[in-house]
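Summary of Year 1 activities. Much of the first year was spent building the evaluation harness for sequence design. The harness presents a backbone, in tokenized form, and records the residue chosen at every position. We chose the following record to illustrate the format because it has been used consistently in internal testing since the harness was completed.
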């Protein structure tokens, strides 16, 4: 029996006090109401909570955390539930705080280039609000039309533009956080420079709801690039595609996007999106550069030439903005397109140094073939982040066993190459078994000691990232 089997669950008396702290209609307890909150985007993980509550303000979150703490009931925070590592999967009978209704953009400050928002705001709405005043919020996870900004901070999410613009962490200037004892605190500010004490906000970025509940974010915005150019290069070999990427970087060009889809993924995406992608190729690379129009033209011409020199069968530029958006949208739909093939989709997130990419893609293919598994691989070629996606059936135990064996081999090879088991989806439950192996004893224990210091009673998302 694990320690977590013994934790108290939501009782009628806790429900009554929660209903006096917030509008009673925002506390769900009926089985049919709470069922949709028993899983996230991760395959084969489902646990029923005791109650689901929808707070509207940081103060309400703080009040609910205090009540849950008094009853010693664990709290699992949830945004949109698009996570791919099981981070917002509840513990049996726990309290789920779903922040999706905390969806107000509070301020766009054009003079300080910041945006303040509640943590349930949808990621794309942040970028759209910035865009209205000629500004730009670059992190663009594939799920940006549905994920929340709080979820993005909690997972330190990356996106298609990560190569040039970085990830969510690079845009966090401040956070409002509810601590495990229910204290509401503000960390960070609008200052570009601030070295007063430890950078506490950074501890909460990527902490997967285990250290505190993020209720507000203050984001850095940047001027919107004046121009962008999107191109597509088609390859008969993955090695040639990877060589092009190395050549582009070596030419001192940092494109905003360098994405790839393998043959299986291109086939599924074309089947799904019907935008005329060629399916008889080993790799399709989506390249985008943005910035000043003159620089964009120059870089685009150079990138297309480099792609041809390194064996691209065909290179084409999007005719206009609409086609560019169609191509990027097609790439964003890779996961959904693959998911249509078989009942269960297991999407991995291993990341290796850029120079090891071609080897890793080949390795994944060989492992899948050896274990007789169906896999499509796509990902962020520019930053070494791969998404081998196993198309399987969780009811077929024998096949699931082969998937587990294949994943074990992929993780072992990733760590051997100096990579990481997760480049953007977080540890949650899905990667928990591997994280100590990657980090080593000392850094793993350091992480656990931070958890113990900030959440001594282990009430916030216990059992995620590591065992207690
Ligand atoms: C189709 C698809 C494409 C995706 N593409 C990408 C991608 O390109 N890049 C990428 O990085 N990820 C991607 N993801 C994964 C996922 O969308 C991100 O991890 C996202 O940030 C999760 O946001 P969410 O609001 O759905 O959070 P949830 O899934 O609800 O929660 C994720 C984790 O964050 C915690 N959490 C949520 N909100 C808060 C909060 N306010 N305070 C504290 N903790 C909180 C939860 O407890 C959980 O541990 C994709 C997922 C899907 C389904």
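For this record, the design step produced the sequence shown next.
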């Amino acid at each position: 029996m694990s320690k977590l089997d013994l934790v108290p669950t939501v009782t009628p008396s806790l429900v009554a006090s929660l209903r006096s702290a917030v509008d009673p209609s925002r506390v769900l307890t009926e089985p049919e109401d709470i069922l949709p909150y028993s899983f996230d985007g991760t395959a084969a993980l489902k646990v029923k909570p005791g109650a689901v509550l929808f707070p509207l303000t940081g103060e309400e979150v703080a009040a609910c955390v205090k009540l849950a703490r008094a009853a010693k009931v664990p709290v699992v925070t949830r945004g949109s539930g698009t996570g791919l590592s099981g981070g917002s999967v509840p513990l049996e009978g726990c309290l789920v705080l779903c922040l999706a209704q905390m969806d107000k953009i509070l301020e766009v400050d054009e003079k300080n280039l910041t945006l303040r928002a509640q943590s349930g705001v949808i990621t794309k709405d942040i970028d759209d609000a910035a865009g209205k005043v000629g500004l730009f919020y670059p992190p663009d996870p594939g799920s940006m039309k549905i994920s929340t900004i709080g979820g993005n901070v909690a997972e330190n999410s990356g996106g298609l533009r990560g190569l040039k613009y970085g990830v969510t962490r690079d845009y966090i200037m401040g956070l409002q956080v509810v601590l495990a004892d229910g204290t509401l605190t503000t960390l960070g500010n609008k200052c570009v420079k601030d070295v007063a004490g430890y950078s506490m906000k950074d501890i909460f970025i990527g902490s997967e709801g285990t250290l505190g509940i993020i209720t507000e974010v203050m984001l850095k915005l940047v001027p919107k690039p004046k121009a962008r150019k999107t191109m597509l290069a088609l390859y008969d070999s993955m090695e040639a595609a990877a060589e092009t990427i190395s050549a582009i970087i070596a030419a001192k060009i940092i494109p905003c996007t360098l994405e790839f889809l393998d043959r299986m993924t291109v086939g599924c995406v074309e089947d799904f999106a019907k935008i005329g992608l060629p399916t008889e190729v080993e790799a399709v690379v989506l390249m985008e550069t943005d910035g000043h129009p003159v620089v964009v033209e120059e870089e685009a011409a150079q990138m297309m030439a480099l792609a041809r020199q390194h064996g691209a069968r065909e290179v084409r530029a999007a005719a206009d903005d609409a086609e560019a958006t169609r191509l990027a949208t097609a790439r964003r739909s890779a996961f959904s397109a693959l998911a249509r093939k078989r009942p269960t989709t297991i999407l991995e997130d291993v990341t290796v140094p850029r120079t090891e990419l071609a080897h890793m893609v080949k390795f994944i293919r060989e492992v899948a073939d050896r274990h007789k598994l169906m896999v499509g691989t796509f990902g962020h070629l520019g930053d070494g982040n791969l998404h081998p996606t196993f198309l399987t059936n969780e009811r077929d135990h024998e096949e699931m066993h082969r998937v587990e064996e294949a994943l074990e081999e992929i993780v072992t090879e990733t760590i051997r190459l100096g990579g990481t088991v997760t480049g953007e989806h977080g540890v949650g439950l899905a990667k928990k078994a591997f994280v100590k192996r990657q980090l080593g004893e000392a850094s793993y224990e350091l992480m656990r000691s931070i958890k113990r210091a900030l959440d001594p009673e282990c009430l916030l998302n216990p059992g995620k990232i590591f065992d207690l």
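Residues 40-41, 76-84, 87-88, 99, 119, 141-143, 147-148, 150-152, 154-155, 157-159, 208-209, 213-214, 335-336, 424-425, 428, 461, 464 surround flavin-adenine dinucleotide (CB under 6 Å). Quantitative recovery figures across the full test set are reported in Table 2.
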